[in-house]
Design a protein that fits this description.
heterodimer, A: mainly alpha, about 0% strand, globular, B: alpha/beta, FAD/NAD(P)-binding domain, Polyamine Oxidase, Chain A, domain 2, seven-stranded mixed sheet
Amino acid sequence: MTRDQIREEVLDILSDIAPDEDLSSLKDDQSFREQLELDSMDFLDIVMELRKRHRIQIPEDDYMNLRSMDSTVSYLEPLMKDIQKV
Amino acid sequence: MLNAGRLMRDGTMENLPSSDQHPASGSYDVLIIGAGMSGLAAGIRLAYYDQRVCILERHWTIGGLNSFYRLRGRDYDVGLHAITNITPKGAKRGPLARLLRQLRLTWDELAISPQIGSEIAFPGVRLRFSNELDLLRSEIHRAFPDQRDNFERLVEAVIQYDDLDETHAAQSARLRLSELITEPLLVEMLLCPLMFYGSAREQDMDWGQVSIMFRSIFMEGLGRPHAGVRLILKQLVRKFRSLGGELRLRSGVERLHVDQGRVVGVTLESGETLEARRVLSSAGWLETMRLCDDGQAVPAQRPPGRLSFCETIATLDVEPKRLGYDRTITFFNDWERFDWRESQAPCDARSGVVCSPNNFDYDSPLDKDGAGVVRITALANHDYWRSLDDDAYRLEKLRWYDRIATSAVRFIPDYRGRVVDADMFTPKTIVRFTGHENGAIYGAPDKQLDGRTHLDNLFICGTDQGFVGIIGAITSGISMANMHCLK
């Protein structure tokens, strides 16, 4: 997956976690926590969704890389580069 | 008028299939004990993430404490008066928004209508409140003008309280409230709804629990789905099953077999034995320990709760508002101190909670034929109700139904001449449907906040883990599933 595809995938996960949320105005350099009021339970869901969809295992110590869209995409890029977009 | 001739819910439940179509074979990732709010919520989380999960429910229906039944052609709710923590659609913060996200439910699927308005009634003083804190604020200005600033200090302290920082969590709420509010009567009046809706501890509460309850009741607010608790339960079951979860009714757990610090097998009352990597129990702390076959010395570890309820449910031939009763809930207490402890009499009719499910802000009336419902909850003595033989039990239900109603009509319009049907539950009913020792409505006073037990793969959720009420129970199921079965 390219960076753009990974970004789209993360957006899709976020829309799953927060179905009532308008994600079109999400700023990539700002934290999810502040913009979407996500808490630790929601971050677990991002991790679990990535595991469920792409079998990516993210250790608990790495959760902090999921702070914003930019940091998430950068963290996932090497992990997802060989995954084909379906 | 009152037909107490049979125990509640006998043969009157809506039919649910006794087990799902999936055959129970092989081993599960997680077995959940109890299909109440917490068990169902935990089940959804685990099934969503592809775990093989089965919920085992002893009864023929779901819900546990929060359930519903049909009697003589009418629908009744048990447990639920109102859902707390009601935040409007689109709100991102707060427990309701969080649990909707976690369960992948939309706000509209629960379709909660807000309360019209409630009140706390003590001798000579009434404080109204709604889902806007400003109403309570102005009522306090009116009734206790010199407590105006103190109330703001209280609100500020409650907002500042951090659930995750447990430094002051266990502090006495009476003590903390008296530091903030200098009028003892106001302290009692504020504690009354908070204790009725969620204190497992007699006479006092933890400051942490008060802060959480204050926010859930006075700052976020109360609401109810038009179809009542059955809508919530049906949505949870629908979700759980659509994700491949298995729900087995009439499947009480008889024993948890323990070997080398782990549960290695679960035997049902039918004799069938199941295996699972983990077991999550909502049966209560003590009740779960008793299921373990390794001889836990349970009562010494954590005393069970003593607080139980009776509730009278009256169907009227008229909507309560036509009798001049338009409040959603009235918390009443007939003297200036609120006595929150196990009732010495069969029921403690000095205080109670009146709730009319008609009085929510629905789009259409609750009953198309204009019938009304008045429910009244009062503290009750478990041992007394359990000691009665069948005939005495029936008579005592009639007697205390009348006494509770007679006490309540000192605070609300007299509806008694318009009652066309009635029912009542007692601590005995609560034991029957929840299995909780003493019919303890909010479980044990001391909670097991991390849900852990002496066994590596056995965890508890629900009433004895943490918070109470529908939102609390669902949150408990979610967080215990997340913490112990997903990470």
